[in-house]
Each structure stands twice: as structure tokens, then as C-alpha cells.
Write a structure and sequence with these properties.
The structure is a homodimer of 330-residue chains. Chain A is of the alpha+beta class. Chain A is 27% helix and 27% strand. In chain A, the strands form four sheets. A six-stranded antiparallel β-sheet of chain A has the order 8-9-10-12-11-13. In chain A, strands 1-2-3-6 form a four-stranded antiparallel β-sheet, with helices on one face. A two-stranded antiparallel ribbon of chain A has the order 4-5. In chain A, α4 crosses α9 and α6 runs antiparallel to α7. The relative contact order of chain A is 0.12. At the A-B interface, α1, β1, β2, α2 and β4 of A face α1, β1, β2, α2 and β4 of B. β5 of chain A pairs antiparallel with β6 of chain B, so a sheet runs across the interface.
Chain lengths: 330, 330
């Protein structure tokens, strides 16, 4: 399903991303422009002509629609709002109920609430570019099984050819950006790392806690590069990362999921710390590797990750998938 | 978060589960009792007194509430309905929009839709027992790191003492139940298995495809029992399972996530086949183990799963968690 959340990638262009923009503009908005909806009182969406539904989620109650608004390309995103405890008693008293099914102690109803207690959030991108449309389009995923040879002959050349910029990572490590966001740092050039909240986490509640540890060492692209030589680094991140999170957020290690991604979003070694029970994007078995498992595997086989066949999922529009297809590997 | 979906477990009691009940009663409902809501036209929920919110999900737009209805214990579940493509044009024309933020090509609004286009689904359990309340209560999860010794001294005795019944599994293997649901069978007593849809899958669309392969061999409790001796069995399940799903559903292996759970829900070896991209419950890295990884690990170390420290998540009310706590392991 389409992902509205901010995700940082190799490509620094990605930082010009929608969620980040809205975050930035929350302050712009304070000066009060157009607070009361459309200037003319007109519902701007009444003229929207749907072209196609890009994606939707019955589970999350969202829909992403491509269409035309005043003859311009537009993407409209609808999302129902969470049900707030504060509004419950008013919902219970002021709504209309229709019985659907009754059996024994169980009944189901359809409920129509007063509109102000049951809003939707609408996001409009207009004019939308082809890139926006593609971004919100549901993408098929494919499981790739990458042998050690495939990594050398397909993945590694692809990574090198793209020469993805991780300048934003270096900016963090060098305190040229986001230094005020750093939760913990071990400055050691070989074993050290910077721990900071992921952009996906609004830091308002611990339920969806998400931090990233970024190594000071710059020559480790991913899990594939790790050998037993890196065990002190990995153990240091696990130990000090857990301690820092306990100290700052009061969350013990038994509440944390600590893992690496393969493939990662950017090729500079980093470790994810998320709250156990939070279904963070990318915590599925087809992408995540528990740091404790990585450490154990390298202990018993120094070249574990250099020799394994690694399975991961790639979206249909991922350049790496095309490379695997061209090589006849799918 | 609370799980409304049917899940089969060791304990056969679990089959007296809510989703199954609603499923069963959908036909009871056809005879039309009380179709038009409350007999008296009264909104039954207007008298509901909230005691506590058991759990909620901002992502899924659900809330589970415990309270009193006419002096009886009750659980009320609210869930917003998915946004349907069919209603989009009416939502766009007939709603009230309020501008929230505008910046460049991006704007966000709050939308108030006509109530009949924006319903909620309500489920009422009344009178509710303590068991219902507990079932819908949000449960904290804890990460447990089980060493090989912990398995022998804590987990194995716990499994044996519980002497969980897997009679429902034997009923399937012996064709005493659900034989009409079998998608594929290899009857070989050593290498064979039965493949059938999981209860969680309604089989209406492939998006959330979920099948289970259950081994004919009865002496393998879980991943912990597997050694290289079982490689032919595991490879047989992987190969023939994938072939059967391709043949029956047209879904190739590159669209499948094939994995085992540790801890499993019941201690008779079984393998999960789910559609890649479907965030199936239990596909997270803290519970799922890709079958291809299991096979590789046993190839390089016949006792891999007998010797490893295994990490998994347990709910606060899980008896096994108490055992680990009593042993001072958390």
C-alpha cells in the first residue's frame, strides 16, 4: 500500500517529501492564511473528476485518488480520523443506530454519527506531477532470492552505478544538520554511532517509538559487508543504544525490536530501534534481521552474511528488480 | 492491539471465538429479526456508561470500550468503515471542507461527510463476561531471549505440562474434519503434509492469501526440534506447497512469504504461506522465520535451532512469560 510517511533514502531528492513539507508548514500556517476553508466558501473538491483510484486500504480506511481539479492533474488522499475517547459519550448519545445482526449476547449495528464527530482528513496535491502519481500508486512486490554471486554480479554493481548520495547522513555525523535531535552519541570513529529519532516518529507517544543508530564508520554498506570483525561495533550499538533508550524514554530492552534492513533504504550501516508491538513499516521477516541474530550468526560463522542467499522484497518500480529480471533471476 | 480475527490455538476452546460466532450468525440473521434497529426506535447505546477503553488503534480507526448497558457488563467495539470508491463522487460534492494547511502545491482539509456516507460498524457484547473483557484488552508484549538451556528448563516443561490438545490437527490429517477445505495433500507419512486455507483467510481475494501446511509427522513440536534430518521434509513442503499454490491460485513463488512461527500457536509442525505485501499477523521478524533461511541454516549447521538463542515476543497474559519471569529471565 502507498506510504504517506516520510522516509529518507539514498536519493536526497526524497527529503523534498510530502510529510516533511506538511511538518515544515505547520508553522507557516500559524499566520492564519485561509483558516476558514476556501476563500469563496466553495467546496474545492466538488469540481474534482476522478481518473483512477491509485490505492486504498480497508484496514486503515484510506483511499488515494488521481484526477483533475480545474483542469490540472491532482492527487486527493482521504483518511478517516481515529476514534477519540473524548468524543465517545457524544457519539453514543447523538448518533443513529441501525441493527444489523443479533444472536445471543452479540449484536452488530451500523452507526451514523453527527458529521463533526466523524471527520476525514483530506490531502490535496495540485498540480500533481507524474512522480506524485507514481508515488501513491499501489505497487506490486516481488520476493528476490539473492545468492552471494548475485550480490557480486547484480546488486553491488547496481549500488555502485547509482552512486547514491548519503550526504544527509554525513551532515548528521558531522553535526551540520539535526544536531539538536541527537538522543545519544558514542563519538568513537570505529565503534561509535549517533542515535536519533526516525522521521516517521512524531515523538508524541512511546507506542510508535522509532530511532535509528547511524555508525560513524563509513565503509559498511549493509548486512552483506558485515563479518566477525564488526562484532565489537554491533555489540556496542546494541548495548549503548538500549541503555540510551532506557535512560531517555524509560523503555527497557524487553520492549524493543532492534534490527537491520536488507536491502536497506541507504547504503551506510544503520540499526533500527522500534517499540515491540508497533507494526513499524519494514519490520516484516522479508526485510528485517534482528541484531541479536546477526551477532550470533557472525559469532558462529564470520562470513555468514557474505555467503548466504538473502531473501527480500522489491517493489515493481525498483531499479534493482529490473536488474534481477534482466539477469533472468525472477 | 486486540485481535478480532479467528485464530486457532492449542486450546480447542478458542474455536468458540467471536468472529466465528458472527460468521455463523450471518445466516441466522436472514430470517429478519429486528432489522430496523431497536424495537422501540430507541438508540440502545445512549444509555451506555463507559468504564474504560480496553484498546484502540489510530491506524485502523477502531476502539474497544468496556462499560455498563442497562446495569449489565458490556463491551462495545466501534470501527470506521472503509472508504468505498462508489461513494467518492458523492463525498466530494456533498461534504463540507475546512482548510487546514496550504503550502505550494500541498493542502490539507478537514472534511465532514453526510452521515450515511461515513458510517461506523458497532459490535455490542452484552452481557459480557470477564473473559470477553480480557480478550479485548490491549496486552503489553515482552521480548524473551530463550537460550538452548532456557528451552530445556523452562519452555519444554511448560509445553509438556500444559499437554495442549492438537486433536483438531489430527482430525484434519485423518480427514475427520475439514477434508473439503484441503487444497493439496502429499500423503507420505514421513515427508507428506496437508495444505489448507487458514481460518483468517476468507478466500474471497488473493490480497490476503493465507494457507497452512501441516505435516503428517506428529513428533515435531516446533523449529526447536528441527535438525538436518528434516531437510527432505522441509524441502518437500516448500517445493510442493509453492507448486500447489501456483496451480490453484495462479500465484508464483515470488509473491509468497513462506515461514514458520517461533513460538508457534500449537506444537505440531506447520508452515505458513501468505501473500507477499499482506501484513499478516505474525509475519514480523520477532516471530517469523523464512523457510528458505531455516533450510540454509540446517544445511550449514545440523543443530542450528537446537543451539541458538531464539528471540520472540510474548503477551503479558501468556503462561510461558510467567515461567520466564519466575526463572528471573526477564
Amino acid at each position: 500500500m502507498a506510504d504517506i510517511s516520510t522516509k529518507r533514502e539514498n536519493n536526497p531528492e526524497a527529503s523534498d517529501d510530502f510529510s516533511q513539507r506538511t511538518k515544515k508548514t505547520k508553522t507557516d500556517h500559524e499566520d492564519g492564511q485561509g483558516e476558514n476553508g476556501e476563500e469563496s466558501g466553495k467546496n474545492v473538491l466538488s469540481g474534482f473528476q476522478t481518473t483512477t483510484v491509485l490505492s486504498d486500504s480497508a484496514r486503515e480506511k484510506t483511499i488515494f485518488v488521481h484526477g483533475k481539479l480545474a483542469e490540472q492533474n491532482a492527487v486527493v488522499i482521504l483518511e478517516k480520523t481515529p476514534i477519540s475517547e473524548d468524543t465517545l459519550s457524544e457519539i453514543f448519545t447523538a448518533s443513529t443506530l441501525t441493527l444489523d445482526i443479533r444472536n445471543d449476547i452479540y449484536s452488530t449495528y451500523r452507526l451514523q454519527a453527527p458529521p463533526h464527530l466523524n471527520e476525514m482528513k483530506v490531502t490535496v496535491v495540485c498540480p500533481a506531477t507524474e512522480k506524485h502519481v507514481k508515488k501513491y500508486q499501489r505497487q506490486e512486490s516481488f520476493l528476490v532470492e539473492e545468492t552471494a554471486d548475485d550480490y557480486q554480479s547484480i546488486t553491488l554493481p547496481f549500488i555502485q552505478k547509482q552512486s547514491f548520495s548519503v550526504q544527509w547522513v554525513y551532515n548528521i555525523l558531522e553535526k551540520k544538520a539535526e544536531s539538536e535531535r541527537i538522543v545519544f552519541e558514542d563519538p568513537d570513529p570505529k565503534l561509535g554511532f549517533v542515535l536519533l529519532p526516525d522521521f516517521k516518529w512524531d515523538q508524541k507517544q512511546l507506542d510508535n517509538l522509532y530511532l535509528i543508530a547511524i555508525t560513524h564508520r563509513r565503509n559498511i554498506k549493509s548486512l552483506r559487508d558485515l563479518t566477525s570483525e564488526h562484532l565489537p561495533l554491533l555489540q556496542n550499538i546494541l548495548q549503548k543504544g538500549k541503555e540510551a533508550i532506557l535512560q531517555r524514554y524509560g523503555l527497557p530492552a524487553s520492549k524493543l525490536r532492534v534490527y537491520l534492513h536488507y536491502q536497506p533504504s541507504y547504503y551506510h550501516l544503520h540499526v533500527h530501534f522500534t517499540k515491540l508491538g508497533y507494526e513499524a513499516p519494514g519490520c516484516g521477516v522479508e526485510r528485517a534481521h534482528l541484531l541479536t541474530d546477526v551477532i550470533q550468526n557472525l559469532h558462529s560463522d564470520p562470513d555468514y552474511y557474505k555467503t548466504r542467499t538473502m531473501s527480500f522484497s522489491l517493489r515493481a518500480d525498483d531499479g534493482l528488480l529490473s536488474q534481477f529480471k534482466e539477469a533472468g533471476k525472477l
